[in-house]
Amino acid sequence: MRGLGRLLKRGHRLGFSKQNNHCVLFSASKTVSYSSNLFTSPSKSFHVSSSPQSPIWNPFQGGQRRTMFIQTQSTPNPSSLMFYPGKPVMEVGSADFPNARSAMSSPLARAVYAIDGIARVFFGSDFITVTKSEDASWNFLKPEIFAAIMEFYSSGQPLFIDLETAAAKDTAIHEDDSETVAMIKELLETRIRPSVQDDGGDIVYRGFDLETGIVKLQMQGACSGCPSSSVTLKSGIENMLMHYIPEVTCNNHYFGSFGQMDLLSCHLLLLL
């Protein structure tokens, strides 16, 4: 433990995984990764890889020392991982980047997409959810993602190039909203969205059709394409909406990322 303390004092960056007790130390010129148990030596499973994106900091030449503590957390989606930079990410709402083209509006999202094997990027209030492709390995991706996040926050760049591209408050209640729509938005914001965000994603309100009773929602982040998303919709979101809002009736369909529609159950028209 004394050795670890000395490393931290020398300006290493530490990333910590809440579930797997996995730590990553970011030095100025290389990334040091190891797995440890609280009762075993941290020297086991030791891996060193170069990180050319990080500028070399020399304590004898002066300059500003930069440190960053990054935590990771798994999600119900095995292809998605949450990264907590220890700093605010989105001030309001969330932002989803389902492909590299959509990431052009954000320097951070663009930097993450520059890594091979990235399928989706999502910004929450204090976390970044990254979804990998099926053939990609987290062992390779995690150090690269750590480096991209660290470089962004040390660069001083804005999260978005154009502030108008930042996420709008989809659940904001407007004067022309009906009582039913206002109730749906309030329920999503206060009861449903916090639970979904805890899993590294978000659910966005897209509309309500009073004639058919269909609520239009969009799943983002780790929740998009998650194997358990259908269970979440049926047993959680759908039942809650029906319980509190009788206008929501049995007319639910499921939409994929690019508009493909599949029958799921009832009540919701979901856009992924």
TrEMBL record:
<protein>
    <recommendedName>
        <fullName>Scaffold protein Nfu/NifU N-terminal domain-containing protein</fullName>
    </recommendedName>
</protein>
<dbReference type="InterPro" id="IPR034904">
    <property type="entry name" value="FSCA_dom_sf"/>
</dbReference>
<comment type="similarity">
    <text>Belongs to the NifU family.</text>
</comment>
<dbReference type="GO" id="GO:0005739">
    <property type="term" value="C:mitochondrion"/>
</dbReference>
<dbReference type="GO" id="GO:0005198">
    <property type="term" value="F:structural molecule activity"/>
</dbReference>
<dbReference type="GO" id="GO:0051536">
    <property type="term" value="F:iron-sulfur cluster binding"/>
</dbReference>
<dbReference type="InterPro" id="IPR001075">
    <property type="entry name" value="NIF_FeS_clus_asmbl_NifU_C"/>
</dbReference>
<dbReference type="Pfam" id="PF01106">
    <property type="entry name" value="NifU"/>
</dbReference>
<dbReference type="Pfam" id="PF08712">
    <property type="entry name" value="Nfu_N"/>
</dbReference>
<dbReference type="InterPro" id="IPR036498">
    <property type="entry name" value="Nfu/NifU_N_sf"/>
</dbReference>
<dbReference type="GO" id="GO:0005506">
    <property type="term" value="F:iron ion binding"/>
</dbReference>
<comment type="function">
    <text>Molecular scaffold for [Fe-S] cluster assembly of mitochondrial iron-sulfur proteins.</text>
</comment>
<feature type="domain" description="Scaffold protein Nfu/NifU N-terminal">
    <location>
        <begin position="70"/>
        <end position="156"/>
    </location>
</feature>
<dbReference type="GO" id="GO:0016226">
    <property type="term" value="P:iron-sulfur cluster assembly"/>
</dbReference>
<dbReference type="InterPro" id="IPR014824">
    <property type="entry name" value="Nfu/NifU_N"/>
</dbReference>
